[in-house]
Amino acid sequence: MVDFSDTRFLAILIFDIIALTLAVWWISRKLTSKLEEVENRKKRKK
């Protein structure tokens, strides 16, 4: 079982959750930006 009273464990868990959240946010932002670039290139070629 997990010991939620262990402060070191909780600190690492919170850090990991924040890091994952930031990574997903950053990747989704980059993907959205790249998709917009592709759409703009397609519009210019027409």
Task: From the structure above, extract its key features.
46 residues, mainly alpha, 1 helix, 0% strand
Concise overview:
With 46 residues, the chain is mainly alpha-helical.
Describe the structure.
- With about 45 residues, this protein is mainly alpha-helical.
- Helices cover about 85% and strands about 0% of the residues.
- It has 1 helix and no strands.
- It has one helix spanning about 5-45.
- The chain is rod-shaped.
Task: Give the arrangement of secondary structure elements.
Elements: H1 7-45
Most strands sheet: none
Unreliable stretches: none
Mean pLDDT: 95
**Rg over C-alpha atoms, rounded to the nearest angstrom:** 19 Å
